[in-house]
Amino acid sequence: MAFGGKFIHCIRNELFPGDKNESNEIKIAFVLVSRENDKKAIKSYLDRCGCVSQFLLLNTMKRKVSALAVMGNILKQVNAKVGCDNWRLDLPKSITDKHTMFVGLDVCQVGRKSIIGMAASSNQHGTQYFSRLANQKIGKDLDGKTKRE
To answer: Which residues pair with 104 in a beta bridge?
Structure first.
């Protein structure tokens, strides 16, 4: 049995007896792997079980950087994965009391293409958002039609 398979067997027996996450508590798995290849099967299984996962590469943990900085970044990632905000602005009530959406749009020219980026907030604090990128040929409108001179 490969490493990933052994690990999944342990998860199934310890975290999810009966193959189901029947409790309403948030389960978070921090998984330390030595190779990126070990991550795929384990993450897939944890996702199917509804378990939030954060993978750490052994090499990352061995680097000579501040352990506090590494752990701080890991906690920010987990916090975002469970739907919490890492930062929040103190917005005036005149904005938060109304259903206000913050929208940003930018276009960057790269060779014969334009890259269009858009982001729009999806909660009253402006901390969660939807974003999309699109490639567009130069000389075309957003709908793909040729511009008229």
So the answer is: 119
Tokens at residue 62, please?
């061995």
Distance CA 39, CA 133 (A): 27
**Block mean pLDDT (10 aa), the chain, length 149:** 63 61 64 81 84 83 73 85 81 82 90 89 84 82 61
Q: Which residues make Cβ contacts (< 8 Å) with residue 89, sequence separation at least 6?
A: 125, 126, 127
Whole-angstrom distance, CA of residue 52 vs CA of residue 27: 6
DSSP 8-state secondary structure symbol assigned to residue 27: -
The amino acid present at 127, given as its one-letter code, is: T
| All domains in the chain, ordered by first residue | 3-81 (no CATH), 93-137 (2.20.25)
Give the pTM: 0.52
